[in-house]
C-alpha cells in the first residue's frame, strides 16, 4: 500500500521557532514561524510538500494556522522548509519560542507562480479555506487536544 501525507493526518509536531528566509511579512504580507531543518527532516518521507492547515499553540494560546511544507518553487529554495502562518496579528516576532502544531488537512500541492501577485492571491485563498474549515465541528475539537494544552 502506498502511503501519502493524508495517511499521517492529524500530524503532531513541536519545536522552537527559528529565523527563516525573512520574506513572509516583508514581501508577502504573511509572516511565518519557521521550524528547524531537524524537524523538517523528521517528517515521514511520504509527507507531501504543499499547503496544510490546522491548529497551533504559542505561549498557551491556540490559533488557527496555515502551513507550507516544501521548496517554495517561486523562490527556488535549496532547503525544504516548514513555514507556519498563525492567523493572528502579532506585534513582535517569537523566535526561540516553542510552537506546537496539529496538522489536520491538506489544501493543495506547492506550486510555482508567474508573479508575486499570483502567489499572494493563492496564500489569501489558502487562509480563507483554513478559516472556513477550522470552524467545522470535526476540526474545532482539536483545539482541546491535550498535545496543545499541556
Describe the protein's architecture and organization:
With 150 residues, this protein is of the alpha+beta class. It has a single domain (5-149), classed as Riboflavin kinase-like (Elongation Factor Tu (Ef-tu), domain 3, Beta Barrel), CATH 2.40.30.30. The chain has helices spanning 24-27, 37-41, 116-134, 137-140, 146-149, and strands spanning 11-18, 33-35, 50-58, 61-70, 81-86, 98-108. A six-stranded antiparallel barrel has the order 1-2-5-4-3-6.
Structural class of the helix and strand makeup?
alpha+beta
CATH topology call: Elongation Factor Tu (Ef-tu), domain 3
The general outline is: globular
Strand content: 25-35%
The spatial strand order of the largest sheet comes to 1-2-5-4-3-6
Tell how many strands the DSSP assignment holds: 6
Mean pLDDT: 88
**Over all CA atoms, what is the radius of gyration?**
14 Å
Low-confidence stretches: none
Biggest sheet overview:
6 strands, antiparallel, barrel
Specify the CATH homologous superfamily: Riboflavin kinase-like
Question: What is the name of the CATH architecture?
Answer: Beta Barrel
Please give the share of residues in helix.
Answer: 10-25%
Keywords: ATP-binding, Flavoprotein, FMN, Kinase, Metal-binding, Nucleotide-binding, Transferase, Zinc
Cofactor: Zn(2+)
GO molecular function, one term: metal ion binding
EC number: 2.7.1.26
Amino acid at each position: 500500500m502506498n502511503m501519502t501525507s493524508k495517511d499521517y493526518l492529524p500530524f503532531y509536531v513541536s519545536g522552537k521557532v527559528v529565523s527563516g528566509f525573512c520574506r513572509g511579512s516583508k514581501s508577502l504580507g504573511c509572516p511565518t514561524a519557521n521550524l528547524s531543518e531537524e524537524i523538517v527532516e523528521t517528517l515521514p518521507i511520504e509527507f507531501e510538500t504543499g499547503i496544510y492547515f490546522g491548529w497551533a499553540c504559542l505561549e498557551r494560546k491556540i490559533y488557527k494556522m496555515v502551513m507550507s511544507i516544501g521548496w517554495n518553487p517561486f523562490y527556488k529554495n535549496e532547503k525544504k522548509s516548514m513555514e507556519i502562518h498563525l492567523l493572528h496579528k502579532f506585534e513582535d516576532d517569537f523566535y526561540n519560542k516553542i510552537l506546537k502544531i496539529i496538522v489536520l488537512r491538506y489544501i493543495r500541492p506547492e506550486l510555482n507562480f508567474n508573479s508575486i501577485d499570483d502567489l499572494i492571491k493563492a496564500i489569501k485563498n489558502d487562509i480563507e479555506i483554513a478559516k472556513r474549515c477550522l470552524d467545522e465541528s470535526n476540526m474545532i475539537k482539536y483545539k482541546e487536544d491535550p498535545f496543545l494544552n499541556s
